[in-house]
Design brief:
The protein has about 230 residues and is an alpha+beta fold. The protein has 9 helices and 10 strands.
Length: about 230
């Protein structure tokens, strides 16, 4: 607006401040392109890594508050560890406010969950020395006690291999160095916290006790796949 003789006047179109152009015709977004890429990677999951995606990571740190706000619009919370260099999203704890489930949790079988906890323990035991690199056979050996009497070795090995591939390709909590060896991602500390460990460990004992009982069903480790990772 301009003012003449004390009376406000509407500015002419030439005097109006030019709006910042969008990234494409009709674009009304307000985040930078880099921040949008970071937001999209967070929603796509399973997590954003500073080491593996330095561009989106830098954009996240530069525009964290607005990205958090966009996530809240979608009923999502941002979990961010600047020191570790990891971030991911989870469904917001909305209390009594009913909210849709914005991101789906990954359903884990009994063996999946057991492997996740074994990897987490290996990470915590070895990370003070730097990168934690483990062999597949070492992990499988830790899981051997979970094979029940109704499960033959061949079938159990197939289930272990399926869980191993899920850790590598879907959850991406380990990064392959070869067919046999992987590096455990530090993000595993964030994805599975101490409270979840205690809850899952208690569930283990319940499931294993059920499998040992005379009425236990064969394959209970798959039927009782009720543990989740966001």
């Amino acid at each position: 607006m301009t003012e003449k003789d004390g009376i406000p006047e509407t500015a002419t179109p030439e005097e109006q401040p030019a709006a910042e152009p969008g990234a494409w015709p009709g674009d009304t977004g307000t985040l930078s392109i880099d921040a949008r890429r970071a937001l999209l990677k967070l929603i796509q999951g399973p997590y954003l890594s500073a080491a593996r995606a330095p561009g989106p990571w830098s954009a996240l740190l530069a525009d964290e508050s607005r990205i958090r706000s966009r996530l809240h619009d979608l009923f999502l919370d941002l979990v961010l560890d600047r020191d570790a260099g990891f971030a991911f999203v989870r469904n917001a704890a909305t209390g009594e406010q009913e909210a849709p489930v914005a991101v789906r949790s990954e359903q884990l079988t009994f063996i999946d969950t057991a492997m996740l906890l074994v990897l987490r323990q290996m990470l915590l035991s070895g990370e003070q020395d730097g990168r934690v690199i483990v062999g597949r056979d070492d992990v499988f050996e830790q899981l051997a006690p979970f094979r029940t009497a109704d499960r033959d070795e061949t079938d159990f090995a197939k289930r272990l291999n399926a869980s191993w591939l899920k850790m590598r390709n879907k959850l991406r909590v380990v990064h392959a160095l070869s067919d046999e060896r992987v590096e455990i991602s530090p993000v595993l500390r964030m994805l599975v916290d101490a409270d979840q460990v205690r809850t899952i460990a208690a569930e283990y004992e319940r499931i294993r006790a059920g499998e040992s009982a005379p009425s236990a069903q064969s394959g209970a480790d798959d039927e009782e796949a009720n543990d989740d990772v966001a």
